[in-house]
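> example.struct
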């Protein structure tokens, strides 16, 4: 009996995919932001999840929090420094089944020139559908939490009443739509 792997390769659709985040502001509320321009490849093997892999890139220059002044500050050297670090990347190292239709994907997140390991909790990929143009599509949602200081994002201001202007914990949410790049393949 040969050891074969059946995997499907998908391309992340940058028009229909986003990377969002939320972080505590003034210790009283969350501020949300979003990046567009998510690109990459997902190889998914439902029979053997360990054979699956993900490589994704986020265009950091597309940051949008719905406030131009805040966006300019976040894009500056105080935070993302998009002039020096225009891309955020993720490369998986391990994929494991975590439940029905749920996976844990561990890998290297490179943000602000610093690489650290994170684990994404993933729902999907969902059953494939055919769009009106005949393309085979699927989707997935993922979330993780990081400490921004671990990635060199340390700017802050102490508040007169105690606490800080910007929290350290950042929740990251990904919404991905993916197109089948090729049909299922069998490799030895």
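> example.seq
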């Amino acid at each position: 009996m040969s050891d074969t792997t059946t995997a499907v390769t998908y391309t992340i659709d940058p028009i229909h995919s986003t990377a969002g985040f939320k972080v505590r502001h003034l210790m009283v509320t969350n501020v949300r932001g979003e990046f567009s321009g998510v690109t990459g490849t997902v190889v998914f093997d439902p029979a053997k999840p360990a054979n699956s892999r993900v490589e994704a890139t986020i265009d950091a220059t597309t940051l949008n929090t719905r406030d131009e002044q805040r966006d300019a500050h976040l894009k500056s050297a105080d935070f993302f420094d998009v002039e020096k670090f225009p891309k955020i990347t993720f490369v998986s190292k391990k994929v494991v089944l975590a439940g029905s239709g749920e996976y844990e994907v561990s890998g290297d997140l490179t943000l602000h020139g610093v690489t650290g390991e994170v684990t994404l909790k993933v729902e999907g990929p969902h059953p494939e559908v055919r769009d009106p143009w005949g393309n085979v599509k699927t989707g997935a949602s993922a979330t993780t939490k990081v400490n921004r200081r671990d990635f060199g994002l340390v700017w802050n201001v102490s508040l007169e009443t105690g606490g800080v202007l910007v929290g350290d914990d950042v929740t990251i949410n990904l919404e991905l739509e993916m197109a089948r790049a090729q049909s299922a393949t069998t490799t030895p």
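> remarks
The chain has one helix and twelve strands.
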